[in-house]
Amino acid sequence: MITISQPQAGIIPLCERPAWKALQQHHAKIQNVHLRQLFAEDLRRGEHFAFEAVGLYFDYSKNRITDETISLLLELANQSGLRERIDAMFGGEKINVTEKRAVLHVALRTMKDELIKVDGTNVVPEVHAVLDQMTGFANQVRSGQWRGHTGKRVRNVINIGIGGSDLGPVMAYEALKYYSQRDMTFRFVSNVDGTDFAEATRDLSADETLFIVSSKTFTTLETMTNARTAREWALQALGDEKAVARHFVAVSTNTAEVKKFGIDTANMFQFWDWVGGRYSMDSAIGLSTMIAIGPDQFRAMLAGFHAMDEHFRTAAFDRNLPVLMGLLAVWYNNFFESQTIAVLPYEQYLKSFPAYLQQLTMESNGKHVTLDGTRVEYQTGPIFWGEPGTNGQHSFYQLIHQGTKLIPCDFIGFFQTLNPLGDHHDLLMSNVFAQAEALAFGKTPEEVRAEGTPDWLVPHRTFEGNRPSNVILAERLTPETLGKLVALYEHSVFTQGTIWQIDSFDQWGVELGKVLAQRIIPELEAAEDPSLKHDSSTNALIRRYRNLKGGAARMKKKG
Ligand code: G6Q
Question: 281 and 165 in contact (C-beta within 8 Å)?
Fold first, then answer.
């Protein structure tokens, strides 16, 4: 029996907390109050529910809230032990109870002189030692000092990893491309689908290509399959086992497996079991990011993360960005029964940000039992999704504006663009403000009629409004700002998980499918028909696949 870490002791079940009950009553009172009314009643509402912290301006006035809502949500945070839980996380306690691990991604971005202990050992020096090792290596690759097997400099870097060992590096590279070394090519191979590898390498020369095999465990099926294929691909061109040492480096916690693969452990970058995969982009998993943008910019990104960490740890909850964002997510998820949250960055470089957030939020809070294993009686993690604006406006925004579902939105925008081109940026930002305005206030039937719309068309052209959103604005997209934004969502996720009393840091839900696939692989590859003992559907699918899988090869032969 696992004992729950101290901070959760004494916390009463969510639905019994007085603040929860008060919020239910409060919701019944205000659920139909329109944002039009709330704005009319308080002409300064737009400033009242908005503030700036750590360089981010947060306008949450277009939410279906009053002062009472916020004070009840803050009360809920207190009754849920959020303060104690934050202290426990930053203090290195093993709050990931099902894996018996500390949760210390915040240690990855602390200053050198800080002290964070896990099992009595200060982990900060180790963190900085790896950062220094990464810095040395990144500088060598960027300057051309690091040579491939044939003496050529590295022009291409391919990160092989999946899940937390892929999504962060992909997102960070896309987000910070503006700052990247442009005479180098960066690619990311994650899918076990051979197409991913084939397309990533088809136009590259092996003698100029460096593979970073990123895997905490170094046993993940997809990553190890791609890594082996990469080794074959490189050796086919370079023809010498010794080439592996010049063209492969590893990011892992598993020295033995790295050695077995043939990678020189001098070129292995460590991380630790207290860094969860989806919280690992600041660890050595970020090596491709560091090579792309350079060590100084990477450290600036870490400083951004750290600034948000400190804000989360120290700011009063009523002026705490992640706390308020997390509580608002709970408000819609549990009281308005919203199923999803849309994240809408108005910044093309953030095109992979929603995909990144999907893992961060949904793998963290997609849980159905509390820390002590009791089934929850309430909804947990909402579905996160999104696209950069303005593209989304021409596809799914219709449903957000006029559909039957309530979808809270996070709009993210910047005062300055990295690519000033005519009036593009004003046009872009006008859409941020217009969308949030349209969602909140809509357009009444009277307004539509007054425009001369025939009666039969009025319902179609009416916008109910009262659709909530947050607007988050920053000066410009820099490594530091990216760090702040990611940390904002990390801690918002933590806040939500604390309210729901779940373990936001395990991921047992990804296990079952993996185990079953291991059983099915030999059944697909066996020469003789295997005796199949699955359900009738799975058996039939496997048989059909076995019968037809040679099709492509046969077609090729025929052609
Ligand atoms: C994230 C998960 C998961 C993990 C991948 C890759 O929190 O743990 O997405 O990152 O399964 O694992 P490895 O890094 O061990 O290959």
Answer: no
Residue 401 CB less than 6 A away from ligand 1:
no
From 21, 368, 514, 549, active-site residue? 514
Angle between helices 479-500 and 295-314 (to 10 degrees): 40
Paired with 57 in beta bridges are 52, 473
Give CA–CA dist 392/254, Å, rounded.
Answer: 42
CA distance 300 to 306: 10
pLDDT digits (tens, 9 = 90+) for 122-166: 999 999 999 999 999 999 999 999 999 999 999 999 999 999 999
Ligand 1 centre distance from Cα of residue 177 (Å): 24
Which residues in the chain show pLDDT less than 70? 1-9, 552-559
DSSP H or E segment with residue 83: helix 82-90
Per-residue model confidence (pLDDT) at position 11? 87
* Residue 60 CB burial class (10 angstroms; 0-12, 13-18, ≥19): buried
Distance CA 173, CA 177 (A): 6
Query: Is residue 507 lining ligand 1, measured as CB closer than 6 Å?
Result: yes
Angle value at C-alpha 166, between 160 and 170, nearest 5 degrees:
105
Note if 52 is an active site residue: no
Distance from Cα 166 to the centre of ligand 1, integer Å = 9
Closest residue to atom 9 of ligand 1, CA basis? 163
Q: HSE, CB side, 13 Å, CA atoms: give it for residue 188.
A: 23
Alpha helices in 113-152 (DSSP H): 124-143
Three-state DSSP at 187 gives: strand
Q: Can you read off the two tokens belonging to residue 311?
A: 């804000």
